[in-house]
Design a protein that fits this description.
6 strands; globular; about 150 residues; Nuclear Transport Factor 2, Chain: A; alpha+beta
Length: about 150
């Protein structure tokens, strides 16, 4: 009988451990941590190849376009504004405390923060398929040199 137990247990011991599936909230938590650390590779690991990201400044489709967006965002100086392009860097998640986090039906996570910031994530198969950020607290972009106010 002990031989039988050994034969039965060995395959289980030799099998690689399978990671537990991540729920939508865990995927979003990982994403926010990666964003806070400016860890582009970890950040991009959270997105599906055909993901859609909607920022107040534009829409990005596909992981290559999303990567370029974050590369550009992270290149903005810590002062928050790139004077050469007028781009504005949003505050990191450490500066904007999440007031509420809700997991809605079917993999949708809603984050609400101070200053009118709302972020929606749709997670499918442990990847972000859609993300939208709405924020009324961003300063207006810089005007190009020589432009006139209306």
């Amino acid at each position: 009988m002990s031989k039988l137990r050994t034969i039965v247990l060995v395959p289980f011991l030799l099998c690689p451990l399978v990671a537990a599936a991540q729920g939508p909230k865990e995927v979003v938590a990982h994403h926010l941590t990666a964003f806070q650390k400016h860890d582009l590779n970890a950040l991009m690991a959270d997105y599906a190849r055909d993901a859609v990201l909607v920022f107040p400044t534009g829409t990005h489709v596909g992981s290559e376009d999303i990567r370029k967006s974050f590369e550009s965002l992270f290149a903005v100086p810590a002062t928050g504004r790139d004077t050469s392009s007028g781009r504005v860097r949003p505050q990191s998640s450490t500066n904007i405390p999440v007031a509420t986090e809700e997991e809605l039906n079917d993999g949708v996570v809603l984050l609400k923060s101070g200053g009118g910031r709302i972020e929606v994530f749709v997670v499918r198969n442990e990847k972000i398929a859609f993300q939208a950020l709405q924020s009324s607290g961003l300063p207006p972009p810089l005007k190009a040199a020589g432009s006139k106010s209306r």
